[in-house]
Amino acid sequence: MPSPFRTIALIGRFADPLVAEAMQALAGHALGRGVEVLVDEAAALPARPGLVSLPEPALVARAELLVAVGGDGTLLHAARLANGADVPLLGINRGRLGFLADIGAAEMFERFGDVLEGRYSRDVRHLLRARLEDPAQDLRTVLALNDVVLQKRETGRMLDFETWIDGHFVNTHGGDGFVIATATGSTAYALSCGGPIVTPNLEALVLAPVSPHTLSDRPIVVSRLSVVEIRLVAQAPVRAQVTADGVVLGDLPPDGRLVVEPAGATATLLHPPGYDYFRILRSKLHWGRGARHGPRDA
User: Fold this and answer.
1) Which residues are catalytic?
2) Are 74 and 50 contained in the same domain?
3) Minimal CA–CA distance to 190: which of 177, 203, 174, 201?
4) How far apart are CA 33 and CA 30, in angstroms?
5) Calpha distance 91→78 (Å, rounded)
6) What mean pLDDT do residues 31-53 have?
7) Does the model's pTM come out above 0.90?
8) Are 242 and 258 in contact (CB under 8 A)?
9) Each residue's pLDDT tens digit, 222-272
10) What CATH number does the domain containing 171 carry?
């Protein structure tokens, strides 16, 4: 059966031996099915017919599928490369948790083969756009699949900042920072801040203070379409840094603004047959260990 994908790109940290081994094996698997395989020229995979090395930024323009080999961080990196382009993502987990990279090592070839043969479901996730407005610098923007985070930098003092939603003042916070997470990112940093787990199909954002000084300063859930704005309360010498999916966007100055809004772009994740979001939660969060905690017969 011919594959619906004629050209795929493998993305991963080749310096990791587990990732390098998996990438070589997956490349051979795809080449054996007549699929052209693209890799970053820095990966230094052995030359083979049908294997093409390109600069990493050029992979998206040519590939019909991005295969992220590693952990969730690798899949987020692949999503940044896609930058909202209509190229689906598939995650092969060779990292730790794997909420997004949901194909495990034990089933890697079987599930990869399913996808190459067209047996998969599409899971569309909405992206955020973070905009850092600083009068002293040019406007900086970036897309995020998981979250946008404000956090204190190089100081033991806490941050004081205001939050605004759709132009309405919400609160003044004191603490280590603030997380604005998509439903996808609700199982990432926001979860460690006491935020709820939000199923990916919900049109919601989680706003979670990081180590708030006030016990009543709790996470809240708002519409995915909300425009969230953060402003520092002028103080010195505290510095605040903004990251998007773990990548530094820049520092937020006292007279600047961080604006997080719907990007109007999406990332499409592919899942092989049998994908079950709640099974992943049980596995990764170690819920219900023991036979007596399994589902009862109907």
Assistant:
1) 72
2) yes
3) 177
4) 5
5) 9
6) 89
7) yes
8) yes
9) 999 999 999 999 766 678 999 999 999 999 988 889 999 999 999 999 999
10) 2.60.200.30
